[in-house]
Design goal:
By secondary structure, the protein is of the alpha+beta class. The chain is built from 14 helices and 25 strands. A 5-stranded mixed sheet has the order 16-24-21-22-18. It has a 4-stranded antiparallel sheet with strand order 4-11-8-9, covered by helices on one side. The protein has a two-stranded antiparallel ribbon with strand order 1-2. Strand 1 and strand 2 form a beta hairpin. Helix 4 runs antiparallel to helix 11. The longest helix has 46 residues. The chain is elongated and about 80 Å long.
């Protein structure tokens, strides 16, 4: 790390994947530092916690940014107790960093493991176990045939060699990392605010174009639809089901994370792929095999996709043939309806789609509700002129968003590398004067990372599978 000193003396750790460590540091097996806690909660209600690679251990919340606790579990009786400063491990996703120290007392899924510390500073080990080297080693020690089903059991975790500086040095490392990551996270928050403002600016361009057109002096008429308002007098208003064929995704097998369905030749798109895509979906993370293909449904390149569960109302156009689950619907417009115009119109309708999602079905939107909704529709040539205008007007905005996202990516990579180098002794932070960091900033360090909705869904599938 630039500008950070290294230790005067190092020694071979005799652990190949760790390499050299500071000469005065020790190695201890995890069984001497951790002890499994298997206390069970006896009340129906409690502080339900969750753990992930993105957020560490946090209060489990409802989706869509709600500040209310998640209340899906009818009763928490039998859930595992996690005390403040306990290590919580999602045994099915620990290889990907889904473990961490809890900053509050609560309860966790019975499928998780909870450990109390017998020695050391818990938050030092929080950073150590989540760093790159330890994540790789935890993955190597996890058991399972395919990656999506790997599990780390206590006996295997206890055999892990943990680097052990003195408690005084562990404390200094934690204080230093709290300070530096708080600075980095503040930078990331500011960039995310900028991105949100730019997205709002682009959204206004889209909304204006698809409801008013390009001529500010055109004569208007009432559309009869609240979200649309007045439209140019020569435009029509049509129900969605009359201008496009609506195709429901399919994935009839449960649980969705059944490993026997995956790792084949058929691209499989999930809600997070749509949310992250921009205008076009150009890549994928998962594939289905023949068995998975049989319980799903393939859609052609050029299908407009929309998420109707989790992150409702996100849209993107498929750039290749792909399968997707019943949490996504596809649209194939009729003749004289532009696919791109439909994309931008649906983008303008995000809030309307959210309004149409009934609360009593966990916020899911259905094909019938979508089909009954109305959109403004100019003639075909005007549709293309509007698409061209939107893309030219928002090109600079898109470039600025891309640069900000790239800056977030680079600083996040730096943060990961910094944590790894500090906790494994590649750099020496003992002599650095560290200012105090506000408690609320310390507790928010991991929460600053945005967690993709498809990761949340996969995590919940893992919980249910346990």
């Amino acid at each position: 790390m630039a500008n950070l000193p290294i230790y005067d003396k190092y020694k071979d750790s005799n652990v190949t994947w760790l390499g050299k460590i500071p000469a005065h540091w020790e190695l201890r097996r995890a069984k001497y530092i951790l002890r499994e806690r298997d206390e069970r909660w006896q009340d129906a209600k409690g502080n339900l916690l969750s753990v992930s690679q993105y957020t560490g251990v946090t209060n489990r919340r409802k989706k869509e940014g709600s500040k209310d606790p998640d209340t899906r579990a009818e009763s928490l009786v039998g859930y595992k107790v996690a005390e403040t400063n306990d290590l919580v491990v999602n045994i099915m996703l620990a290889w990907n960093g889904s473990l961490g120290v809890s900053s509050a007392q609560g309860v966790v899924s019975p499928a998780y493991c909870v450990y109390k510390f017998q020695d050391g500073v818990p938050w030092y080990y929080h950073n150590l176990l989540r760093c790159t080297q330890y994540r790789s080693e935890i993955k190597r020690r996890s058991r399972g045939v395919v990656e999506s089903r790997l599990r780390i059991y206590s006996d295997d975790l206890f055999r892990l060699q943990l680097i052990k500086p003195s408690e005084e040095e562990q404390t200094q490392i934690v204080r230093f990392l709290d300070w530096k990551t708080a600075q980095i996270n503040k930078f990331i928050r500011n960039k995310r605010r900028l991105i949100e403002l730019l997205k709002e600016q682009k959204q206004n361009i889209i909304n204006q174009a698809v409801t008013r057109g390009l001529n500010p002096n055109v004569k208007l008429k009432p559309s009869g639809v609240e979200w649309i308002g007045d439209i140019p007098e020569h435009w029509d208003v049509r129900r969605i089901k009359t201008v496009t064929k609506i195709l429901r995704g399919k994935f009839s097998h449960r649980p969705r994370n059944d490993a026997s369905l995956y790792d084949g030749i058929f691209p499989f798109i999930q809600t997070g792929d749509v949310a992250r895509a921009g205008k076009f979906i150009v890549g994928y993370k998962q594939t289905l095999n023949e068995k998975g293909f049989f319980v799903s449904k393939q859609f052609p390149k050029g299908t407009l996709t929309m998420t109707i569960a989790a992150n409702i109302g996100d849209v993107a156009i498929l750039d290749f043939d792909a399968c997707f689950p019943d949490s996504i619907v596809g649209f194939v417009p009729i003749k004289n309806v532009s696919l791109e115009f439909l994309y931008y119109t649906f983008t303008a309708m995000k809030k309307e789609f959210l309004k149409e999602a009934p609360v009593n079905t966990q916020g899911n939107l259905n094909v019938e509700r979508i089909g009954a909704m109305s959109i403004p529709l100019p003639d075909y040539d005007t549709q293309w002129a509007l698409v061209d205008n939107i893309e030219k007007s928002s090109a600079q905005i898109d470039q600025t968003i891309f640069r900000a996202e790239r800056e977030i990516e680079l600083i996040s990579e730096y943060r990961t590398r910094l944590i790894s180098d500090v906790v494994t002794g590649k750099v020496d932070v003992r002599g650095i004067d560290v200012p105090d960091v506000a408690e609320e900033d310390i507790l928010a360090l991991d929460v600053d990372a945005a967690e993709p909705d498809d990761v949340i869904e996969d995590k919940e599938d893992m919980d249910n599978a346990g």
